[in-house]
Here is the input.
Amino acid sequence: MDSAFVTGGTGFVGANLVRLLLEKGFRVKTLVRPKADQRNLEGQAVEIIEGDLLDKKALRAGCAGARYVFHVAADYRLWVSNPDDMYATNVDGTLNMINAAGKAGVERIVHCSSVSTIKPSKNRLPADESSEYGGVEEIVSHYKKSKFLSEKAAVALAASGLPVVIVNPSAPIGPYDVKPTPTGKMVVDFLNGRMPSYIDTGLNVVNVRDAAMGHYLAAVKGRCGQRYILGGENMTLKQLLNVLADAAGLPAPSFKTPYALAYLFGALDTARARCFGGEPLVPLDAVKMAKYYMWFNSRKAEQELGYRPTSARAALAEAVAWFTANGYAKARMAAAV
Here is the structure.
């Protein structure tokens, strides 16, 4: 039986990937931080390797005997009071993981990056893997900067001869988003009546199960040193909210907030969080990112990997059902869905 090691198995994409690998007959090991929330692994026949991405001994234990390594773990937040820990996890942790896998002689190392490392088009055309930032100084938010640097490290290690393939998921949606992620939080906020308006922006929405399948296909068919966008459907935020409204039986917001007003609120709210603690409701970096339509195409993954994304609209409806069934939405949602 082939073995696979997954970092981030307790998280959103990682939990769906673990389930996929088990369905395909793999023996799965996953890295779990001490005292981490393990709800996503309940009932799953996985071997737990306790540690984090800075624990080289735990990484060696996870890689031992593995055919494939999937590095999915990341610190995914749009606002942090102290970014040093985020860079340590996302950049240093990536170097540790890939080097450990290389020393273990695994067949393929799949590094989960993000479409945030790909420069969006200014004319709202879907960007592809050829669209690159000139440097980290062009990038908004510590999360995106850290993912950019970690991807560059992965590409450099691939160039040195390690069997690394990079995947770039867009905005995943679906079940097992326990934190939830920023995209999932948007769904939860809508369900709980905390999105009275919207701004003019766009994003690419992918079914999280498709993103998980893309990781597997990258391990089996991906070319070392290449990156593959794992996307779904390009939607405006207004379109996305309309789909959520239909799925939940709730009204969609009709008021469009001017970008300047959203920017002002984000700046003030972020300053409040820095001065008095807590987290901003609307991080300024999130507003800055929303200035561009984050639209992408997955043609390369479709042609080279056989990647076939399914309906993002169905995934959004499933997310509504999952968040409601798991208590993330108010009780009034029970009769609405």
About this structure: The radius of gyration is 19 Å. Residues 331-337 have pLDDT under 50 and may be disordered. The chain is about 40% helix and 15% strand.
